[in-house]
Amino acid sequence: MEIPHCAPPRWPSEISPGRLASLVRTESAEGCRVALLGLADDEGVRLNGGRPGCRDGPRAFRAALSRYGAAHPPSAWVGVFDAGDIVPGDSLEETHARVTEATGALLEAGLMPVGIGGGHDLTFPFVRAACERHGAMVGVYCDAHLDVREEPGSGMPFRALVERCAVRALYAHGIDLHAARADHLQWFQAHGGHLDPFGPGDEWPEGDLFVSLDLDVVDMGFAPGVSAPNPCGWLPRELDAWARAAGRCPSVRAFDLMELNPAHDEGGRTARLAARLFLAFLAGFAERRA
Questions:
Q1: Is residue 234 part of a domain?
Q2: What is the pTM of this model?
């Protein structure tokens, strides 16, 4: 199955049959319910003044995932298709257009798209495709930053989704208000924004949802490999709970893990966390069968 604007995924050359990644399909999506899409670009991070390097996030994610086992029997496995990595365009706008087209193709094939990034601006075109298919949506995101900047860059996604894609409400969790501008908070609250209104185990908002997890919501002691390290963030298990809940919630139509930056990832800790969060999402998604 070819997805537009995508280069083939780069996995380690040898993956043991005992590893979960050996079950990921790259040629055909037949029998699969979830699709990985590498959002391999960090131009938005550069525009936002962050640390570049997250364009290599999808590669680091796959390398980390290839080291996880597969204890569950194949009957419990949710089939995963890897669509490869978006090839960036000559401008941020062109890259965004490519992300939307590729994500739309995955949705058209009946797959749950999971984006691995990459600058957080790419959540905008990723979710835009879901909005084009499902109509107005509600956003749930975990992030140290509001990401409602008006100017193009990695800090733009949620403002752009509200203003251009009719996203009707935002539920943000883990925001560091010491790192937020007053005018951004004012805009957020004036446009259907809510801060930490519910937990992963509580009742979620009604309507079609997207979920975006920025790895910089986790404390930099556990997740150093991000574009903007967080000196006072969450423990990994907090984000793990959100990932599993997102997979379990039947109204979630798109899910992404963003800002994985291997250029600053000492010991590959953040990549391993990202892979673990994806597995938590899959475990939750498998529960939708019931």
A1: yes
A2: 0.97
